[in-house]
Amino acid sequence: MNRWLIPALLLALAACSPQSSSPSDPVARGERDFNGLGCVKCHAIGDNGHPWGPDLTMLGVRKSSDWIETGLKDPHAWNPKTVMPNFNLTDGTRADLVAYLSAQKGQAWKVKPWETAEAAAMPAADRGRIIFNAVGCVSCHAKDGYGGYPNNNVPGGLVNSLTKVTEGYSKDELHQKLKGGAIPIPDDSSKPAPMLVMPKWGDTLNEKEIAAVVEYLYTLNPKVAGAKPSKDDF
Q1: Which residues, 6 or more positions from 204, have their beta carbon under 8 angstroms from its beta carbon?
Q2: Distance between CA atoms of 110 and 137, rounded to whole angstroms?
Q3: Which among 170, 117, 149, 155 is positioned nearest to 228, based on CA atoms?
Q4: Which uninterrupted H or E stretch holds 48?
Q5: CB contact at 8 A, 87 and 37
Q6: For residues 83 and 233, what is the distance between their CA atoms, to the nearest angstrom?
Q7: DSSP secondary structure string, 124-193?
Q8: Which of 80, 102, 124 is the last residue of a domain?
Q9: Are residues 131 and 82 in the same domain?
């Protein structure tokens, strides 16, 4: 046998081994598993995937790693109505997915949906609706802001509706609330704090973008409060 053949075969086998083919970075492994498990069939991250389910491009901004872990471990324990299947993930795979999803803070977009030429020509309220949906406000407050999404240790166990914000906030007050974020007051101080909080959008969105969201929220009408979501939120 050619004396160079055996080393060449050994190198080829090493290249194909699971140890060498598995990325050392958990975020990279999580991206591999996200695609391999078919998550892209329901979820979009940037320009990759399908928008049947919630867009996850900014999941790391709006959801904590603990919440993502909880949702992946048993989706139906958090939201009994979700259509997301339980993949019965191993601890290692789940940890890698949490790392990948927690890292998603908008960098996957080549062009932000509200910065396209078409969006730029829209009225502020229409751009605000695009921002509301794209950054994931819709994933907690639901379509048209009618609320009803689960949260732990809050009154009624649900995220509040936004359909009556005009009754409680001036535009300036609402702008500052969005900019600075909000932490729900626990329903029971002896129990774990609510896992869903409103992030400080001022760390992610500029003043003009926040103002557009405010304009959109001011168009919401209580008459849609009883509407049903078009798809379950992750």
Answers
A1: 58, 61, 105, 106, 135
A2: 20
A3: 149
A4: strand 48-49
A5: yes
A6: 9
A7: HHHHHHHHHHHTTTHHHH-GGG----B-TTSGGGBPPP-TTHHHH--HHHHHHHHHH-B-PPPS-TTSPP
A8: 102
A9: no
The whole model's pTM is what?
A: 0.83
87 and 122 housed in the same domain = no
CATH number at residue 59: 1.10.760.10
Averaged in consecutive runs of 10 residues, what is the pLDDT profile of the chain (234 residues)? 45 42 89 95 93 92 95 93 92 98 97 96 97 94 90 93 92 97 94 95 97 97 50 38
Q: Is residue 5 one of the residues assigned to a domain?
A: no
Query: Do 182 and 210 belong together in one domain?
Result: yes
Tokens of 209: 């973008």
Q: What is the pLDDT of residues 37-48, one digit of tens each?
A: 999 999 999 989
Instruction: Determine the structural domain holding residue 175 and report its residue range.
Output: 113-224
Structure tokens at 72: 């992946």
12: in domain: no
Domain total in the chain: 2
Please tell me the distance from the alpha carbon of residue 234 to that of residue 63, in angstroms, as a whole number: 10
How is 102-125 classified by DSSP, letter by letter?
HT-SSTT-SS-GGGSHHHHTS-HH
Chain segment 122-134, per-residue pLDDT in tens: 999 999 999 999 9
The answer to whether residues 90 and 118 belong to one domain is: no
